Amino acid sequence: MDKTVSTVEEAVADIADGATVMIGGFGGSGAPVELIHALIDRFRATGSPGQLTVINNNAGNGGIGIAAMIKAGMVAKMVCSFPRSSNAEAFNTAYLAGNIALELVPQGTLAERIRAAGAGIPAFYTPTAYGTELAEGKQVEEFDGHMYVRERWLKADVALIKGKLGDRMGNLTYRLAGRNFNPLMAMAAETTIAQVSELVEPGGIEPEQVVTPGIFVDRLVEVAVPQQEEVLVREGVEY
Amino acid sequence: MAQTKLTNAQIAWRAAQDIPDGAYVNLGIGFPEMIATFQPEGRDVVYHTENGVLGFGAAPEEGQEDWDLINAGKKAITLNPGAAFFHHADSFAMVRGGHLDLAVLGAYQVAQNGDLANWRVGSKGVPAVGGAMDLVHGAKNVAVITDHVTKDGKPKLVETCTFPLTGLGCVTRVYTSLAVVDIRDGHFVLREKLADMPLEALQEVTGAKLHVDGTIADLVVPDLSGN
């Protein structure tokens, strides 16, 4: 079994127009910058894939990563919990001009909706958002004297994630707090594409240390010295 | 001259005194993060951040940041011995599952029944909620730290919130620039107030009745003007 491909271009080559794309990371921590930029390159060269729905905790920062996707005009809708960032100009401009839709989801509900999709659970109840405008129109139910809101699973066609170590079977580890949404998104997408900082042979990751088992990963590519979104934003880089 | 209100640092200091040894605590982004600075000596407190870290410590020296190691406010952090990483679903299981002892948040308004409004003030602009609506459910205690009034002098402790709600009946204690107030059975119960402030004057800048249950202690904090 060998799930590796040799370039990021190859890794994202079949993502279609209108796809729902989960992108791992929390701010710049654990964000798969090279996979995102490869997708932007493809859009600039071919006009595809456009009209994407992007699922991430945030909605891009500065002029790189998801912010650059929005500036390029590839994103029709964002599903996120916190579209604010140190420089959220790309999303704010598109949103206030009515060029991008927003589904705002509380952060824990976003995580659990993604986890539920990966676990085959179509809906669940949570206390989060009960009685607030984010629960309007949703079914509620009382359990043991407390009120809960029913939330649906959240699936995607593709997940772009970032790992630290990966082996050819797709087993992954993560670096520091860069884990965040990545293992959940790996479970919830039809096709999960991982960039890893170091590709190793099977057995190169101790089984006890595997965080995402390879069954959740379809394709992986090594990006040996990955860029860090926060560093690029601070340098004012525009992609 | 008597101090007429506490500074933010003093409010944070006061809140820090109530965090017991061994507590698992989430501090909301912004002002509540300051509480960790005033953790009393000799107490072990484990701080949780939504993006998947338990047991983080102070910010690193400038230039030493590793941007894969951040807190929910996207600020660089360090790790204390015994720290742990986990994914976002586990992180919010800790929140909603009742595993945290305390969450401390900021507020636009707190109502006497414990309703909290802290995520947006109107329907304009770009809404952003983050983890606020999750954090108010599950922690054994949910405290708020806030100025007692808004910048233009309006009460932030109110009968009923007028701003969009973050959660219903979730706040258990409020530390303000003038007082410490508990929320019990749909009422504000005054626990501490600045010694030089008459109860009537405090009531005047509070938007709902302050109940008294036993003695009202003096709200005493150190100067902290060097902080």
TrEMBL record, chain A:
Which UniProt keyword terms apply here? Transferase
Q: Name one Pfam family in it.
A: CoA_trans
Query: Where does the signal peptide begin and end?
Result: none
Q: Looking at the record's lineage, which domain of life comes first?
A: Bacteria
InterPro entries in the record? 3-oxoacid_CoA-transf_A, CoA_trans_fam_I, CoA_transf_BS, NagB/RpiA_transferase-like
Q: Matching NCBIfam families, A to Z?
A: pcaI_scoA_fam (TIGR02429)
Q: So what family is this one in?
A: Belongs to the 3-oxoacid CoA-transferase subunit A family.
Query: This protein is called what?
Result: 3-oxoacid CoA-transferase subunit A
Species of origin? Arenibacterium halophilum
Taxonomic lineage from the root: Bacteria, Pseudomonadati, Pseudomonadota, Alphaproteobacteria, Rhodobacterales
Automatic annotation (TrEMBL), chain B:
- Has keyword Transferase? yes
Concerning InterPro entries, the annotation shows: 3-oxoacid_CoA-transf_B (IPR012791), CoA_trans_fam_I (IPR004165), NagB/RpiA_transferase-like (IPR037171)
The record ties this protein, via Gene3D superfamilies, to:
Glutaconate Coenzyme A-transferase
Give this protein's Gene Ontology molecular function annotations: transferase activity
- Pfam families linked to this entry: CoA_trans (PF01144)
Keyword annotations of the record:
Transferase
Q: What is this protein called?
A: CoA transferase subunit B
The family database entries (PANTHER family) matched by this protein are listed as: KETOACID-COENZYME A TRANSFERASE, SUCCINYL-COA:3-KETOACID COENZYME A TRANSFERASE SUBUNIT B-RELATED
> In which family does this protein belong, per the annotation?
Belongs to the 3-oxoacid CoA-transferase subunit B family.
The species is Arenibacterium halophilum
